[in-house]
Fold each of these.
Amino acid sequence: MTPRTRVAVVFGGRSSEHSISCATAGGVLAAIDRERFEVIPIGITRDGAFVLERDDPSAFALDPNALPEVRDDGTRVLWPESATSRELRVFDADGSVRSLGDVDVAFPILHGPFGEDGTIQGLFELLGIPYVGNGVLASALGMDKHFTKSVLQAAGVPVAPWVTVTAADRAGDREWLRRRLASLGFPVFVKPARAGSSVGVTKVEGPDGLDAALDIAFAEDSRVLVERGMTGRELEIGVLGGRDGGPTRVSAVGEIVITGRDFYDFAAKYLDAPGVELVCPAPLGEGEQFELERLAARAFDSIGGEGLARVDVFLTDEGFVVNEINTMPGFTPISMFPRCWQQSGVAYPDLITELIALAR
């Protein structure tokens, strides 16, 4: 019998998206093919401690009244001491040390800073452990909206006009800053440069709302984007890296249809709040479908993407405008990324298997 591949599923983390990471991990733990893979669940607490977690998907269900989290149970997972070993060990709460055996691949299901931004990818690179998803540079670029837009713009990919604001900008010539922001027109979206899941994002209809929105965004990050609000359809498309040197692959297109909210916010994404419908496949003309597929692959390739991503776009009267690239998109079973791949014929468990194969 072929030995099972040993997968370290890593989740939680220090970012404000800790609970979403846990919920995503719950979905993966429930769906991963146990006949092919042996799972080592590793949680990262909000303080950054690596603990040996329960292999229990139900413990990480996304309950709006009690969001899941990694709790410090006193264990400490120890990564290999060098790139010559793949052995994981754990300090148990009683102080004893035991081996968890070798790990074949890491599956970091982490959203936001200290996980989706190239930091943990750098750890795995140093240790020589294959891992699911994008590398250090693509992860760092995809996490930072300012640099994502800068790279996409240089690659000829259309993006929404924006202004990046630092704390120094805000403390300096406020009239100059006001004029710069007003040049975007209204409405605008104010968002942290390095946060996801719509955390810290505010839609602002006029200049009187800017200060409060900036306060919310600066609570999440030291740099903030103010971005022109785009009028058009909101579309999302999944991307997978090519196999064996082949071309980047794209999924069916999904559409976010907003009927009773200002925008697709955290509550709508994860807490099943009303006013939003996810449609997949989105109704598009043949030419539109082809152009969006081409644009999504180009955006992914322009940041040096590997593994997976979700490309978010607006379809405006002037054409497609790329909003963001998510290098570790929401991956719960009901999230848009797996739903679009399901529509393309790749079931959720098979998508997990494919991502591990790409990593190896």
Amino acid sequence: MIDIKVPAVGESISEVTLLKWTKKEGQYVDRDDIIAELESEKATFEVNAEKAGVLKYLANEGDTILIGSILAQIDETATKPDATAAPAKAAPAPIAAPVATSPIAPVAPAAADVKASPVASAIIADKKVDTASITPSGAGGKIMKSDVLDALANPGKKAFGGNQLFTRNVRVEKMSNLRKTISRRLVEAKNTTAMLTTFNEVDMGKIMEVRKQYKDKFKELHGVNLGFMSFFAKACAIALSEWPAVNAYIDGDNFEYHDYADISIAVSTPRGLTVPVIRNVESLSMAEIEKTVVVLAGKARDSKLTAEDLQGGTFTITNGGVFGSLMSTPIINIPQSAILGMHKIQDRAMVIDGKVEIRPMMYLALSYDHRVIDGRESVSFLVRVKELLETPALLLFGKDPVKSLLEL
């Protein structure tokens, strides 16, 4: 038997959680096959088979396991099944399992494929009942006649998660290592920094015009969509170079300044918020930023982020606008000193040159550590970001082309 041990994943990490087995117990696995996914307090990672053979579990999904402990064993003396047995082995492989953890996947089927008995369907059509208000009781989530009648008799009442009305159920779930780390770091940020938030707003009209005009050509040439994140990342990189305190750490009695912009982007996943890092944003093109965002977001959704992906950011951008947030006060991602919060774009009446116009506006929030960043620096940084976003041509040089020409 070959012992498969939990590998070391970082100096400060002593335990991990077994998220899932990707191969079945008793299944024959080849060398280097992925057999399990583990989660540390910083990231998820995969465990590979060190030898070919039959897999034996020594832990259950959800277990907390110490680094160096034996996770599984492989019987390398076992005979590999012949080719005729291969299809039977491949059929139940849980490749599609991660889809169930997606924040979107569980919702879409319910809206697109409503199953109901003929009588229930007739009542729904006749009474124009919103199927979202109906709690199905039939096999496989099928809506029965009694379910529709119950919804009609209790308008505006909908039980949680398919339970009966007036339920008093309480569910207890173990906190994952990732969630524990998020909780600890958020409390640490609140308790150890002198955190303040300053606000401003930006007219997104110019950027929206640029995207509308060039998005098709951009995707044709670069293979990625032209999103808002590249504009914000580029604007922040320029502003960070001009206001270095916003890009600094505090380390005891010293300030640690960074002559580069490693910008963390907050990505929501089913297991919590992660902040992978885009390295050297100041040196990347818009297309390179967008491609990196796509790669990091995909790795986050698929739980493939490594510790390296998450380490070393100097500044963070978080976008609550994708969830509909109009304004918020983001919490600093320590040891960083500042975080920029993007929000929902909303048409508002604005006074421009003495006239009222409807403009697509976004509130910006900059939370910062007042021990490192003074009020003047924080406000000036945010005003500079606003200026760069409202005049996208400035992102090329950091200056107005005409003023550069005139040496003003």
